Structure formats: C-alpha cells, structure tokens
Amino acid sequence: MRVLVFAASLLLVAVPSAAQDIAASPAEPHIEEGLALLERGDTARALAAFTRATDVDPENAEAHFQLASVLFEEGPLQDLGQARSAIRRAVNLEPTNVTYLAAELETLKGPSWNFWIEFTRATRRIELAKKLLAVDSLNAFAHEELATAAIRDYYQYRNAIWTRDLSFYSPSYVVEGLPDEFTGQDLGGAGGVEQGILDGNTDLNRPDAPLTTANVQGTNEIATRGDRFDLDAIDGFGTISFSGRAEEALETATYHLEIALEQDARRRGLYDDVMRLAALSDDWASALDPLRQMFVYFPEDPAMWRYVGLANHRLGEWEAAAAAFDNALTRMTDEERAIFSDLSMVLPPSERSAYEADPETYAARFWSARDPRFLNAYNERRLEHYARLTTADLLYRSGDLDLPGWSTERGEVFVRYGPPTRDVIIEGEFGSVVEQFDDRIASMAIPSGLADANRFNVWDYGDLKFVFEDPSRNGEFILYSPPADLFGLPSARNIDDMDFVLRAREAFRETPERYDFEVPGRQVDIPARATAFRGEDGRADVLVHFGVPLAQGAAASGQTVETNIQTGAFLVGEDNRLLAERRKTVYGLRASQIVAYDAVSLWVGTEAMDARPGSYDVAVEFETADGAASGVHREAIEIPDFSGTELLLSDLLLAIQVEEGVPAGPGRIRRGDFAIQPSPWGVYAVGDPIAVYFEVYNLGLGAGQAEYEIEARLVPKDQSRGIGRFFRRLFGGRQRGVSTAFPVQINTADDRQYVLLDATGQAPGIYTLTLRVRDAVSGQRAEREVDLFLE
Q1: pLDDT exceeds 50 at position 17
Q2: What CA–CA distance (Å, rounded) separates 169 from 436?
Q3: Which of 8, 25, 207, 276 has the lowest CB atom count within 10 Å?
C-alpha cells in the first residue's frame, strides 16, 4: 500500500507561494488550526478544519493542498478520489507551484482497475512532469516519472511485433481411402492441394503438424490446425517490429534516471527502476554505480542486498553474489525469508507432501542434488533461484492485485525455468484472428475492438511454450485459455493444445524446474582418473589424478608457469552429497608437474581421500584465478571391497614414471617405497615406456614365503560387437601388441609392484592393458584391465 506523507516528502521540495498570501485569506485561521491539530495527531478534526478553509475561500490553493494531504493518507479517513480532486484544484489555482505539481503527480500513482483509467493517469503524470521541468529543470519527481514512463515503453516494445493482415484458416483435404480422422478441407484454396505438400501420413490436427502458408488476395494467411502461436510462422508475415521505439525509450529512461539520482539519491523508488531497466536490457554493469549509492543511503534494506546479489550474479561474480544474498537473508523478515527458502514453487505436485513433512532435510538434498560445481563453497543452482525470484519481482509484480512478482503466472514460470529462449509480445489484430474458426457462431466472439486490444506474450523454451494474454492492457498478463465455445467446434478439435493453463499444469508436473549451468570463462576438458587401493578399517585409499591443460610447450624451459589456479577433487554420493572434498589454490605451476603431449601440455596433480566400498561419482574441477578458463570432469566409479581373504588386485594406476627409493616431489604419489608420477590422461607416445603401478593383497604363504607370477599384456582394444566378439573369444587369434611376464618372491602376503611395457613399433590407437596375477601357493588368480591411448 502507498503511504505518502506530504509534509515529509513534498513540502521540502518548494515552499508554496500561497503561503505568502495566507494573511490576506479568511482561510488562514482554519489552515493554522488544521496544522496544529495534525501535530497533535488529531487527523479527523484537522480534516474538518481544512474543509472549512476551502469553504470560506475556495480560491485558496494551500487550503486545497492541505485537504488533499489528509485525504490521501492511509487510514479510515482516506478518500483518494476527493484527494485527487483537491490537489487538482490547487494546481489549477497555482499551475507553476512545484510542490502542488509534484503532489498531484504522486496522487496519480498506484493501482487502477482498468486500462483506460491507468492510461488517463499516466498521460496526466507525464503532463505534470513536463510542467515541473518547465519550472524546475532538475526536479527529481519529474525526472523519475519520465524515467518510469520510458521504462514502461521499453518494457512494452523491446520485444514486440505488430501483426498486419494476418489470418488463420483451417484447411481441409480429402485423400481417397483414408480413415475419417485424416480427412479435412482443401489446402490450396481455388488451386487445390499442391502436389507433394501432403500425403496420407499427414495429420494437420496434430499440434506439431507442419504449417503451410499461402498468400490469398494480398492477405497473409497461415494455414494450420497446429500451433497458432508458432513464432516462426507468425514472424515475417506482415509483422512490424518496435525495436526503434524501444531503443529510444531505453535512452530516454537512462537519461532521466541519471538526473533523478543526481538530484535526489535518497529516493528509494529510483533504485527499483534502475534494476528493472537493467533486467530488461540485460545491462547489469550500468546498475553497479547506482547500487553503490543505494548502499550508502539504504545499508540495511534487504532489497538493496538482493539487487547487489542479482547484479553480481548476472555479471558472473559468483562469490560476491553469494555474499550479497546471504546479507539479504539475514536482514529479511521471517515472512520474506520464508519465500526464499520455500521450494513449493519449483516442485512437482507429487513431491510436495514429502517436502512439507520435513522441509529442512528435503531442501538440503534438493539443493545438493542440483549443485553443478563443488569447487566453490556456494551452490550456483540456489543462487540462480534467488536471482530468479528477485528478477520476477522486478518484472512481473502486480500493483493492481498487490502480488509480488513470483506469485504471478509469468513470475512462477520464470522462477521454474528462467528466461525463455524467445520472448515476444504480439500486438495488433492478433487477438481476433487467433480465435477465428470457420464454424464459430459470430455472436459468441468477443467484439473485434476488445479482441484487437488484447495482446499476447509468447515464451518459447524450445520444448516448452507458454502463452500469456493481457486483455485489459494493464500489464497483468495471465495464461491464455481459449473461450469456452471453441471447445465444441468441429474445426477446433485440438483446441486443448491452445489451452496454456492446462499445458502449464502439465509442464509443472512433468518438468517442475530447469537450470542449465554454463561453466564461466572458456570451458576446457579435464582428463582425470581415480584409482583405489586397500586402506585401513575396511576403507579404500582413493587417489584422484587430473591434468590442467596448458598451451603446448608450457614450461619447456623448465621455469614455473606464472598462473594461479584453484583445483578441487570430490567424492560424491547419493543425492549429490559430498562425502569427501579436497580444495587447493596453486600459486604458480611447477615445471616438474607439467607433461608435454603432441597437442597440449598438462599440469598434473593428485588428491587423496578415503571411502568405503560402493558406487560413487568422482568430480574434478579447476578454475583460473582470473576466471578466464575453467573445467569440470565427472564420472561414475566403483570402489572395490578389499576386505576379503581371497587374492585381490588394486586398481591399475597408469603412470608416466615410477621410481623406487627416492623422495616423492611435487606431483608425485608416495606408495610405500615408490614415488609415482601418474598419467591421468592415459596417453603415451609410441616408443615411450608405459608404466603401470598396482598392489597385490592376500597372497598365500608357504614356509613364510609368497610366490606369484605377473603377466601384463597390451593389445589393441577389441571394439568389435556381437557375433564378431563372440567368435574372437571362442577361437582366440593372434593380436598385435606387447606383453611381459615374470615371477616374484616375497616374504609378505601383500606386495607393491609396477610393470614397464615398451610399445615401440605399435600403431597409434586405443589399447587395453590387462594385468594378471597367479598365486603359486594358493593357485588363485586375479585380473584387472585399463584402457590407454598411443599417439
């Protein structure tokens, strides 16, 4: 609700000239009495005093102004109609009085019950603003009003088209021998059906049926029984774009907002306009300076913090956005905070009961399952939700219905799915032609004048579409549903496809929300592997090896690459819950950790964690300090159970180098006496040694001695399928490749080993490395495989 305290907001603008003439007016004692009563809080008697003042001197502008000030305030005495009449009278008496002009302008704001009243008020407000500027060229009230009007124009026309001479017709066609559901009218008008346009498999009643266009007597007709809101079909058929008018409105709005802020940075509503314009134009950088001013004057306003969060989020400043939204949440009332924690508007109906039973636990799992990255402490999906709520409130708030933006129909769709791929407002006679059907009773149709005044807003997400209408032309868009009489027409058999109320319900049920995360900066592929070894207490040691791509030849001189990066390795369980995480900031990339390949160099790192046996996802992420490049790698892994007593093999760790008895420097892994430089990419040059590290568990002991044989074989990967693979396995056959075998004797039941293979002479391609172990004491065998690439 609007509360306007005239004495606080308007009398400071200018001293009314009528005050100098009060002494000559019989209204003076009544005005003084009314002001004194207002100071004591006796509003009813003050109203009576100001009324007497206007009665004894109807020409006293100040008396009418003070009367309007009381009638406009919220409370039992409020009478907006009389207040507007009183201030209008004051303006007519003193047409150059800045205070009166600004007061009337303010009284003409607020909800209106129909388009014509709002149109009349908006026209009068613009007239008043221009009068104000004629007297005071820097008046903040006037510049704010003209900025708001220009924003309204920009909002209406930035994506609007006007349809001209457009009509639909539902063609019928007859093809011999087809069942009744495939019959219709003639597609081509007088010329009949054009050969090849339709065949016996074409059903124009389907919502995805193709559109056929024809120009009949100069009229653009779209022949269809499918989607009458197909933007591709509508656009180009006599449509006119309002882009020029929109750009002019954008420039005008920006100009007036800048002056208004310069003159009165304490005007709270200006910052809403700044953010609304930024959301409409997608120019978030322009909002930063005004937001700095807002921070100075409104540091505790939760909306200010939400705006800072929204602007930074849209600019890709995730950390700043997260901090700002957190600040907003701490300053909100419990009711406001509940909106931002409520998930009901992004859930399918089937999940709401589970959510209501335990909102806190459900919400934690919901956000965790949708977190696209773990490298940062914040959840990008949740930040997007906060940004959507804030944007929806800026763009779709209903003043007439007193609803926040997210509670309107367009707002709910926006919160669920974000901005549409295509957002078009259709003006013109479209409201009439979209509901034209040959057999519709004319008396059932809305009068053409009213129908043509309607406008439609089409949101196209590709696989989803929503159509809203604004029949009152007051900005209160609602989901479009066809008139009831159309549902019984033979020519409108698939009219349900035009009922976007039903279509929205279906979409909310089947696709309750959507978010497509875009990795910031240049996206790079990260090679990564996870290898598991037996750990303690039934757990496994999991080593995650990864490579950060660098330019070819990086650190060729042996010097450190002066690049700072953040890395992270994460073990992810059910519902996307983080079970283990390793984050690190690396200042400068050591040359000793950089491995050169034909097309790229990799900075190789490893993170160690432990976990119980089971199925997991492993995620690896990196981002440069300046945000110019980043990457995400995620894959499912199975961590073996090493707790049994039978012969077991660890995972195979592909390595660039394995050394025994030397210190494990940066980028090396220490396992027992071995220092290992892993190969996360699994790529080797033909002729380079291929190293594979592994561990053997539960060897049999005979006379305190274990004896076993290792066989390693590298062959081209068998990529045959079906019967070919079956016969290869059945009959065997020689394959090119390399192999090695050797016995090992130790005095422990567990062993650490590595194998070197020489692939000299092998052709480039994908190979499978198979490692087999046979225990000579127990006779048991164990085997592992891993794929690699020779370049």
Answers
A1: no
A2: 8
A3: 8
